[in-house]
Amino acid sequence: QVQLVESGGGLVQTGGSLRLSCVASGRTFSTYPMGWFRRAPGKEREFVGAISWDGTRQFYADSMKGRFTISRDNAKNTEFLQMNSLKPEDTAVYYCAAGTLKYGMGSRRQDDYDYWGQGTQVTVSS
Question: Average pLDDT of 25-32?
Fold first, then answer.
């Protein structure tokens, strides 16, 4: 059974930064792509960004480009989401997810992820 555990969420002021972590266990982490998604209050869960299995490719939703950076440390089974220049509209529960395709490049589609973390709350005050 694969487990994903996020951490690093919290309360931050507009313009601030946070770094989320996601530690994986139960599967060979280093051979699968990973993603981040978020669910804002009253909205559906949406794509934030993804990273390929080897960390060489990252891509993001348009509203996160230039502010968010995804990375991974395969030796530590950990994925990271560095969030800078945070805005109140970034307030959401953030989820990490493990991709279904071995040696995949990542995906914007939620159906392409088969394991999800429990989420970590990020609140950006104005």
Answer: 90
Burial class of residue 125 in the structure, from the number of CB atoms within 10 Å of its CB (0-12 exposed, 13-18 middle, 19+ buried): exposed
C-alpha span between 114 and 49 (Å, rounded): 16
Helix (H, G, I), strand (E, B) or coil at 69: strand
pLDDT of residue 54: 96
Q: What does the buried/exposed string (b/e) look like for 13-37 if buried means 16 or more CB atoms within 10 Å of the residue's CB?
A: eeeeebebbbbbeebebeebbbbbb
Which residues have CB under 8 Å from 53's CB, separation 6+?
30, 31, 32, 33, 99, 102, 103, 104, 105
